[in-house]
Amino acid sequence: MSRAGEFVVERWSAAERRAAAGAVIAFAALALAPLAIGGQGLDKLTTLFVYMLLAAMWNLLSGYAGLVSVGQQAYFGLGAYFALRLVSFGFAPYPALLVGALGAAAIAVPVSIFLLRLRDGEFAVASWVVAEAIRILVMFDLLVQGETGTSLIALNSYDPATRLVATYWFALASLAAMLVTTFLLLRSRIGAAGQAIRDDEEAARSLGVDVTRTRQIIYVLAAFGCALAGVIWLASAITFLPRTNFGVQWTVFMLFMVLVGGLRTMEGPILGAVIFFVLQEVFGNYGAWYLFGIGVVAVAFALALPGGLWGAVHARWGLHLFPVGERLVRGSVDARVARAVEDARSVT
User: Fold this and answer.
1) Within a domain: 322
2) 332 conformational bin, left if phi > 0, alpha if psi -120 to 50, beta if neither
3) Using an 8 Å Cβ cutoff, are 250 and 73 in contact?
4) Contact residues for 168 (Cβ-Cβ < 8 A; gap 6+)
5) Which domain holds residue 210?
6) 108 in any annotated domain
7) In degrees rounded to 5, what are phi and psi of residue 205?
8) Mean pLDDT within 273-283
9) From the CB of residue 272, how many other CB atoms can be counted at a distance below 10 Å?
10) 332 alpha-carbon distance from chain centroid
11) Tens-place pLDDT, residues 147-179
């Protein structure tokens, strides 16, 4: 017999365990996609993975840590620039992509020391100023040739089909690694501390939370994810143009995907990226009007549906596929045993 009033701490439900298993199966299937999908399909999926990666990183930074940045394009472009420089020094192209992204994350460490002293609007504006300053410095490099840009010509040494598949797998592995890392971070003490700081910084500090260190870890991780997206984009496009690779439109895209999909959820940015990808495929040829349109849609969602589409799903049906926190559920000893049995069955 149940004892009314007893609560149980729950981190995973049976449905959420099944969702996690489904995600593993989905990524395994995507890894085998080159066996069944042509080059154009792989190229489009690679682009989708870039959008998912950007959306997840902006959501981590702004949604969970409360750091609203409009300058993450700095690391998107910087990772690609470092990769180009490493190849010019004799690095193999694909290892250079990973090391270039790590180099951008290394730059994020000293940058974060300055930016994290600022708050709210000051932080947002300063992040954009830093991105522009980095873009201008990169343009002074003779390798980049100013606005003319350059290309990762070394990738042309690979067979086009081989290069396409290698870039696809690199993008898929990067997305999977960053999503898993983000999920585990948010379920850790650092993730809990970041969300506490977002909700009330002074209260979190009074409880002993190291505000600066926590925010710095999240900021650098988000920078690394954006840099990975940047090097993947470079490997796909080959060309590097400072005004494009450091363009503020990348932050506009991130903001759109997260606001439409759902801020402060793991599922929302993925959903938002898929919606954005479809919209771009259909309306991308409209140029400036297209950018204006997604801006209007983003504002409309922020005002009318602040939780995004996934937030509406959660509010209506209470559905969370990838929970990043714990919750109290009413139950009893018998209920806990029944839940354990259900979880065991879902695993087997």
Assistant:
1) no
2) beta
3) yes
4) 33, 34, 42, 43, 45, 46
5) 33-247
6) yes
7) -65, -40
8) 90
9) 32
10) 39
11) 889 999 999 889 999 999 999 999 999 999 999
